[in-house]
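can u do me a favor
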């Protein structure tokens, strides 16, 4: 049997030169609205996902928790917002999460309920 040629693994590495000046005491996650603490992973989120043609321009970028960005996935803001609670609950219930990520999601859900 002929050996099938392996598909190349396509990796995309995000290279951004960021000039973010932090003037607040806390950096606030643009997705869940909570402060991002030192022990939590931070990421740059594309408001309009790159997958949908979003650019790397600063107007299209926001800082968020890494886990919040993963939950948001490549949904448009108008698709994500109405499903936010459901998606956070789903992640909490079904995903294998690190303790810090679990705490972020739990707190985010509490905030959504109290609103
Ligand atoms: Zn967050």
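np, heres the sequence
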């Amino acid at each position: 049997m002929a050996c099938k040629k392996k598909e190349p693994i396509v990796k995309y590495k995000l290279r951004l030169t960021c000039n973010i000046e932090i003037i607040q005491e806390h950096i606030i996650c643009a997705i869940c609205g909570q402060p991002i603490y030192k022990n939590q992973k931070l990421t740059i989120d594309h408001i309009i996902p790159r997958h949908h043609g979003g650019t790397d321009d600063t107007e299209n970028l926001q800082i968020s928790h890494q886990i919040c960005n993963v939950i948001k996935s490549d949904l448009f803001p108008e698709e994500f917002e109405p499903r936010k609670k459901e998606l956070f609950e789903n992640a909490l219930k079904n995903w294998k999460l690190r303790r810090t990520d679990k705490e972020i999601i739990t707190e985010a859900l509490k905030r959504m309920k109290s609103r």
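The radius of gyration is 17 Å. hope that helps!!
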